[in-house]
Amino acid sequence: MTDTTQRFFVSYAGPDRAWAEWVAWQLKRTGCEVELDRWDWHTGDDLVQRTSLALDRADAVVALFSRQYFAPERWTADEWTATVAARGRLIPVAIEPLADDDIPAVLAGKLRTDLHGLDETAATSALLEAVHGPSAPTGPAAFPGAPSAGVPAEPDPQHPRLPGSAGPAEVWNVRRRNPDFSGRDAEMVRLRSGLLSGRHAVVQALHGMGGIGKTQIALEYAHRFASQYDIVWWVDAEQADQLPVRYTELADRLGIAKPDAGTEANARLLLQHLRTRHRWLLVLDNAEQPDQIDAWLPEGPGHVLITSRNPGWHGIAHHSHLDVFTRADSLAYLQARVPGITPEEAGLLAQDLGDLPLALAQAAGVLHSGMSLDRYRELLATNTARLLHESDVRDYPVPLAATVGIAVARLTDGGHREATALLRLGCFLGPEPIPTAWLETARPGLATIPGDSADPMWLRNALQHLSRFGLARTDFGTFQIHRLTQAILRAQTTPDLAPAVRDDVAAVLAATDVGDPHAPADWPAWSSLTAHLATPHVTAAIAGRPALRPTLLKAVRFLLASGQSRAALDLTTTLDQAWSADLGPDHPDVLTCAEHLGHATASLGDYAKARAIIEDTYARRRRVLGEDHPSTLQSANNLANTLGDLGEYAQSRRMQEDVLARRRRLLGEDHPDTLQSASNLANTLGDLGEYARSRGMQEDVLARRRRVLDEDHLDTLVSADLLAGTLAALGEYEQARRMQEDVLARRRRVLGDDHPDTLSTANNLARTLSQTGDQAAARPMQEDVLARSRRLLGDDHPHTLTAANNLASILARLGEHAEARRMGEDVLARRRRVLGDDHPDTLTTANNLASTLGRLGDYAEARRMEEDVLARRRRVLGDDHPDTLTAANNLASTLGALRRYQEAVDLLKDTRVRSLNVLGPEHPDTVRVTRNLAAALTAAGRRYEAQQLTDGKPKKDKRRFGRRRR
Prior knowledge:
about 950 residues, 44 helices, alpha/beta
C-alpha cells in the first residue's frame, strides 16, 4: 500500500518559536507528518546531521519568513539554501510584514503567503492552502457577509494559539522586554520544550552564577510566548517568606482573594484555583531556597519557571545549568551593541570577559561612553575589580563586581570558612575546571584551608556551598570558577594573605602527577594541568619555584607533542625571561627551556628565528656540558633539522651524520635518541634525492621502533610516514598509498584529525592519490587539509603553503588551469616572502606554476620561469637531484612546444642519462623523460632514433611532452 502521507519540516528562527508550534500543530491536525526540531529531537543529537536528515525526508519545507529568519549567522540560512540548492519545495509563509530588501534576492520572487494580521480561522485557511493548494468547496457557498463560524473550540489546552491572536494575557505583571536581548536560541528551545513536556504542572529551574542571564531568559520567554498564556505572573522569590504576599496579589487580580482571610489563606486559595486553570505561567525569579519554595509550588496544567543560583532543585523541578554565552552569541551581542567593532576585536574582548552576559553588557556600556577598546582591555587586565564596578546596564540591577561581592558576603556570613578559603584558593588557579583530586591529594599541605585536613567530606561540603551561592560550577570530579569572579576576588585578597594562597597553589600543582607528556593516553590530564600552569597569573606566581621547574618543562613538552605550538611558545617565552634573569643564561633548566623555545618557534614556521635560538643554545651547551652530553646532542639534532627546514640540506646532512655517530657510540643502536637521529638523517637523504639509501635507513629505523616502542607510538608513526613518502618518491605509489592510509588511520585515532602530524599524513596521501591519477579522491582530501591548516596554522605557515601548492597541482591535473594558476601565483608570492627565492619549496611552486602556464599556452613566460628554476636548482640542489631533472624535463617540454626541437633533444638526452643513473630505468620520471625525448626526436624528424627509444613504437603526437609537477 502506497504511503501518501505528506511530510513537512518547519524552518524558523528561534524568536518565532510560538509561530512554529502553531504551524506544526495545524499541519498535524490535517494528518501530515511534521518535524519540528526539539519536538522530535533529543539532547545530544547532532544538530547538523538531524537537520540534514529532516530536509532529506521532507516533501516540503515550510519556511516562516520574518526579519529574524534572515538575520546573519542563523541556522535558517543553511536550511533554506539547502532546500533551494536541491530544488526542493519551499513554502514561504510570512509571519510579519516584510519589505523587499528584507528578503534575499534569490527568494524575493517566490510567491509567499501572509499570515500576519489574520484571525486564526483565516490564518489556518491561508496556511493550509499554501501547503495543499486551493480546493473546491464541497458544499454550498456561504452567503457573503454571513458571520464567520469561527475557530473550533480548542480541543486541548496544549493546542498552540495563533501568536498575537489572543491579545495580552488577562493577568500580567512582567516588566518591559529587554530590546538588547540576543542569542540563547538553543536554551530558549530547551526551556520551551521542557515546559511543554507534561500535561500537569511543569516546574523548570534555570540555575547558574550571577550575571549569567537567568532573569533575562525568563523575561524574554515570558514576552516571546505571552500569547500562549492567560496568566503570566512574575514573583521576586529571593525571600521565600514573601511568596504568600505575592500570591495574594495574584489572587486579588484574579478576583478570588478573600479580604479577611489573610495572606497565607489567600495564597492557598490561589494554589487551589490554579489546579483548575489552563494556560498560566508563574515565574519565580532568584529563588535560592529550594526547601522553602517546594511547599509553595502550584499544581495543575500550567508552567512554573524558576531562576536560581542554587543548583539544588533535584526532586523539586526539572533543572538545567545555564552557561555563559557561546562565542557566536557573544560576537553577535557585541557587534550589535558596539558599532564598528570588528569580529576579531569582539572575539578578543569576549575571551577576556569569559563570554559572561553581564560583563559583556557592562563592557558595551563603558565602550559606548567613549573609552577605546584597547584601553578597556588594558584596564580589564590590570584593574578588573574597579572596572567591573562600573555599570549603567538597566536590565541588570547591580554590576558584576557587586554581584560577586554580595554572594561572597553571604558565604562568609554563613560561617562557611572552608568554602570561603577554597574559593580564594581557586581564584589563584586558572579559569579552567579544577580537578577535585588535586585538592584531595594536596590537602595536608594547604595552610590556608581551615578545619580538619583528615575529614573525608571537607571538599564535598565546601563545594556544595560554593555551588549554592553561584560562585562555582561543580561537575563530576571538577569545579570551575569564572575568570572574572577570580579576578575580582584576587584583587580583593589582602597583601598579607595573598603570598600564603600562592604557596598553596604551588603546593597543589607540585603534588599533581599526570604522567608522560609524550603519551597521548596521558594528554587529557596534561591538558587540564597545563591550562592552569600556562595561565599568566599562575605562571608568574610559580615560575620562580625550583620544585615546579621540572613540571613546567614537562608541560611545554606536552604542548609541543600535542601540536599546541603557539601555547608552547607563549609559555616558554615567559619562562625563558624569568629563569634567565634569576638563574643566568647557562643554567641547565634555562638551556632546556631555550631548546623548547627554539622547537616551538620552528613548529610555527619561523625557521630563521628558530635557527638563531637553537644555535645559541647549542653553543652554550657545548661550552657548559661538552660535545657528547645528551643535551648537547639534542641541540645539535634540532639545529640540523632546522637547517633542513631552511633548505640547507648538505649542512644538515653533515651535522646529522655526526650526531648519529656520537649517539650510536654513547647510547647504542636502539636507543630512542639514536633512532631519532637515524630517522632525521634518512629524511635529509630523501631531501637530497638519495631515495634508495634513504629507504634502506628508514626501513631499518621503522623495524627497530616497532620492536622497541610499538606500532602506534608517535615516533613509529613518524618513521612509517617518512618511509611511505620515500616509496612515493621512488615511484612505488600503491605501496606508499597503503602505508599512508594505515598511518592516517592510526594518527587520527591517536592524535585526532587536527594534529599537525595527522594533517601531514593526509597531505602526503592526497599527493600520492593525485600522482596515481585518483584526482576525485585527492581533491577533497587536499581541500580539507588546506582548510584545517589555514585555521590551525595560519595562511603563511610553510605547512599551509605546502597544502595549497599540492591543491594547485591537483587542480592543474583536473584541467582547472586558471584556478591552478591563481593559487600557484599566490603560493609562490608567499613562499618567496616566507622562505626566500632559493628555498627548495619555493622552487617547487615556481616549477609547478610554470607548468600550468605552459598548459595555458603562455609558453614564453613558462620558458622564462623554467630556465630560472633549472638554474637555481642546479646551484642549490646539484645537477643530478631528481627535482633538478624534473625542471630540465619541463623546460624541454616547453622548448618542444616552442618548436625548438634540437634544444629540447639536447636537454632531454642529458636529463635521461642522469635519470637512468640516479633513479633507474623503471622510475616514472625516467619513463617520462624517455617518452619526451622520443617525442622531441620525432618532431625533429629523427624517427629512427625515436623508435629505438620506444621499442619500434614511434610517438603519434609530435607535440605531446609530459610534464612533472614537483
